[in-house]
């Protein structure tokens, strides 16, 4: 198969982890006889530094021309600590999602058995847990009208959804539920928010079209609690942009670390595959970032954008093998991990390649 992949490392550890993600794609191409060509593009802080724009036109053109995108992360402490900055790295990410119509963000919570002890949740509560989040990605408070009023002393953001936006993500989640345990949890705040009441109305209206799927509604506050209390109760979850953002960072602790969670953003055009984590300033440049979220994002890319199931599974099996051999990055190690098994980003990448 011939495919063109755009690598968009972005900022901070985004650079470090996508290097490993790309190495894994290269190895897969070699092993399975595919021809992957690559290009690179700027986004986020590095793009602002180079062009003044967090999503330069050139990047967008390259994105539209590629078959899939492997993305790192955006963000820089300079902006995090400067609320007045008008141009921000995250704007590049959000505009990319909107421009490419990436309305569905799939965030699988895949718990590798070997990492049961890496979580702060008790192993007996976690074992066998497997969740697939559908986070709506191009609506909600992220894209609603926002403003400062009152000489800057008051601010608002608008949480807004149309029925159309809810329906298209909900259909994806219903379809996925059909292929799994036929259970769908919809998470909202319909006891308070009008946009959530619209959300719930759409889900309820769709449910009869999927009579084989059992629908459960939960409020976001209760869902956040249940995720820790009884994670195995969750299977397919559909929720809005903001609730999905928060709930999946929480869910990363089921998998052991932010460094383990991959995601696929799909919709109208080229799919974007990225870890759910950010640029992690606290560990940038130290060579300790866990590259597995990027590697597992590459696996999602092959499966979802290219339909290469065996290739995708080969990557997951390699991750499994490396973990079974006892290798860990710092974020998934514990006090019992032997020092010689704790690897940096590149060394973890090298171990993976040995298993591919
Ligand atoms: P973060 O996800 O970058 O980091 C949170 C914590 O998890 C940190 O302690 C970090 O060291 C750890 N962590 C994250 N990824 C890791 C990995 N691969 N290996 C080991 N440890 C890992 O979130 P944050 O600190 O809240 O945000 C930092 C910056 O990233 C901000 O500027 C934020 O806007 C941006 N951000 C970007 C994205 C994205 O590009 N999709 C996502 C989240 C945050
Ligand atoms: C994510 C991030 C982004 C989001 C930020 C950086 C805009 O947290 O991809 O999860 O909130 O969507
Ligand atoms: Mn997030």
Written overview of the protein:
Substrate binds at residues 97, 107, 135, 221. Mg(2+) binds at residues 221, 245, 249. The record marks 142, 189 as: Important for catalysis. By secondary structure, the protein is α/β, with parallel strands linked by helices. The chain has two domains: 1-110 and 258-356, 3-Layer(aba) Sandwich (Isopropylmalate Dehydrogenase), CATH 3.40.718; 120-135 and 164-255, Rossmann fold, CATH 3.40.50. Helices cover 42% and strands 19% of the residues. Strands 2-1-3-12-11-4-5-10-8-9 form a ten-stranded mixed sheet, sandwiched between helices. A two-stranded antiparallel sheet has the order 6-7. Bound molecules: nicotinamide-adenine-dinucleotide, 3-isopropylmalic acid and manganese (II) ion. Residues 75, 90, 93-94, 245, 276, 278 line the site of 3-isopropylmalic acid (IPM).
Give the second-level CATH assignment, the architecture of the largest domain: 3-Layer(aba) Sandwich
Number of domains: 2
Name the helix and strand elements from N-terminus to C-terminus, one letter apiece. EHEHHEHHEHEEEHEHEHEHEEHHH
Which homologous superfamily in CATH is the superfamily of the largest domain?
Answer: Isopropylmalate Dehydrogenase
Instruction: Outline the low-pLDDT stretches.
Output: none
Span between termini: 19 Å
Summarize model confidence as the mean pLDDT.
97
Radius of gyration from CA coordinates: 20 Å
Number of helices: 13
CATH topology of the largest domain, what is it called?
Isopropylmalate Dehydrogenase
Q: Strands of the largest sheet, in order across it? A: 2-1-3-12-11-4-5-10-8-9
Largest sheet: 10 strands, mixed
Q: Tell me, what's the shape?
A: globular
How much helical structure, as a percent, in the residues? 40-55%
Question: What is the percentage of strand-forming residues?
Answer: 15-25%
**Which hetero compounds are present in the coordinates?**
nicotinamide-adenine-dinucleotide, 3-isopropylmalic acid, manganese (II) ion
Query: What is the CATH C level class of the largest domain, in words?
Result: Alpha Beta
Going by helix content, strand content and strand pairing, the class is: alpha/beta
Kindly state the number of beta strands.
12
């Amino acid at each position: 198969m011939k495919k063109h992949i755009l690598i968009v490392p972005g900022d901070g550890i985004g650079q470090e982890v996508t290097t490993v993600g790309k190495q894994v794609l290269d190895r897969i191409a070699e092993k399975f006889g595919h021809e992957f060509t690559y290009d690179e593009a700027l986004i986020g802080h590095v793009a602002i530094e180079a062009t003044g724009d967090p999503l330069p036109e050139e990047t967008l053109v390259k994105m539209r021309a590629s078959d899939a995108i492997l993305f790192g992360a955006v963000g820089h402490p300079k902006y995090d600590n400067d609320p007045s900055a008008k141009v921000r790295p995250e704007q590049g990410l959000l505009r990319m999602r909107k421009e490419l119509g990436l309305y569905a963000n799939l965030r699988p919570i895949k718990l590798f058995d070997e990492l049961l002890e890496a979580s702060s949740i008790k192993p007996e509560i976690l074992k066998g847990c497997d969740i697939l989040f559908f986070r709506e990605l191009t609506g909600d408070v992220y894209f609603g009208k926002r403003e400062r009023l009152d000489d800057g002393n008051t601010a608002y953001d608008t949480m807004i959804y149309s029925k159309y936006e809810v329906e298209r993500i909900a259909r994806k989640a219903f379809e996925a539920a059909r292929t799994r345990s036929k259970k769908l949890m919809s998470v909202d705040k319909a006891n308070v928010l009008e946009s959530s009441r619209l959300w719930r109305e759409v889900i309820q209206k769709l449910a009869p079209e999927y009579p084989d799927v059992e629908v459960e509604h939960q409020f976001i506050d209760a869902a956040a609690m249940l995720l820790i209390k009884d994670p195995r109760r969750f299977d397919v979850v559909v929720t809005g942009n903001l609730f999905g953002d928060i709930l999946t960072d929480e869910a990363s602790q089921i998998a052991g670390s932010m460094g383990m969670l991959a995601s696929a953003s799909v919709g109208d055009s080229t799919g974007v595959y990225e870890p759910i984590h950010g640029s992690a300033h606290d560990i940038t440049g130290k060579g300790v970032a866990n590259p597995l979220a990027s590697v597992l994002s590459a696996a999602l890319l092959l499966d979802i954008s290219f339909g290469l199931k065996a290739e995708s599974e080969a990557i997951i099996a390699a991750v499994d093998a490396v973990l079974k051999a006892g290798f860990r990055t710092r974020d998934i190690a514990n006090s019992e991990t032997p020092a010689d098994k704790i690897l940096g980003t590149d060394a973890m990448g090298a171990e993976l390649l040995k298993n591919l």
